[in-house]
Amino acid sequence: MSRIAILADSGCQIAINEIPGVYIVPLQVIINEKTYLDEVDIDSKTVFEMMRKDKLLLPKTSQPSSGAIVEAITQLKEDGYDEVLAITIATGLSSTLSGVHLACEMEKIPVTLIDSKGTAGNHKYLVEVALQLINEGKSREEIKPILEDLVDHSATIIMTSNLDHLKRGGRITPAVAMLANMLKIIPVMKLNMDLGGKIDVLTKVRTVKKANLTIMDHMLSCGVNAKDYILTMEHVLCDEFASQMLAELKKKIGQGVEVAYGLLPSVVGVHMGIGGIGYQYIKKYQPE
């Protein structure tokens, strides 16, 4: 009988060797021309503290190296797995998925590819559901539509008052950043699911608090509720304000809502800057 391993990147916030059967390849963070393996050589808090101390610092990010991907595939084969279910950070943010596809072809191992169209909490939940389904004996062909349905009922919405990092990192155009700064507006941005998770402006408001409340109202308008969805709220070193918004979020969504809370992955937070906050929702997997 075939054995399926899950291959994911560090954007899912699962540590290497944390879960048997789940193989994590680290994304890369480049700071002052030095490359660090995400959550191996450096963690989110350290990266963000460096950004806070040096406001001109512009860390960059990169997909996992081909060598790291091949190494993970070699290891999972040695561990007795002969199929791969790959779940990666949004293709609109990184080329990780294509890198995994190429490596699996080179290593001649069957693979099913899942674009999370997000990262962080939503990505982690997809990995957890996939592992559950594998343990239930489901095949890759059976798992793929289940995960893709969850992706179709998910979203990542972000806000930041500092657009410099998004601009310099090429995530938004200089014209958008200049206009926002001139008019003193805060853009609310969403990962566009039709474009593989590329960042798109959802709306624009005047204050940081209004931006956060607008995100919550948008989630409600999309049908997000405590019974059917799992939420994630993560930030870039603004815990005091984010905690206030977390309380507001729980109040708006309703009693019993599950909200994972903490720091954003460094590979996302470096593009948002200090004070950035990301909200996510994803439909719960509920077997029929």
UniProtKB/TrEMBL annotation:
What's one GO MF term for it?
lipid binding
List the keywords (alphabetical): Lipid-binding
Q: Which Gene3D superfamilies match?
A: 3.30.1180.10, 3.40.50.10170
Task: Give one Pfam family.
Answer: DegV
Q: Which InterPro entries match?
A: DegV, DegV_C, DegV_domain_contain
Kindly give the SUPFAM superfamilies that the UniProt entry links to this protein. DAK1/DegV-like
Q: Which domain of life is it from?
A: Bacteria
Q: Glycoprotein: present as a keyword of the record?
A: no
What's the protein name? DegV family protein
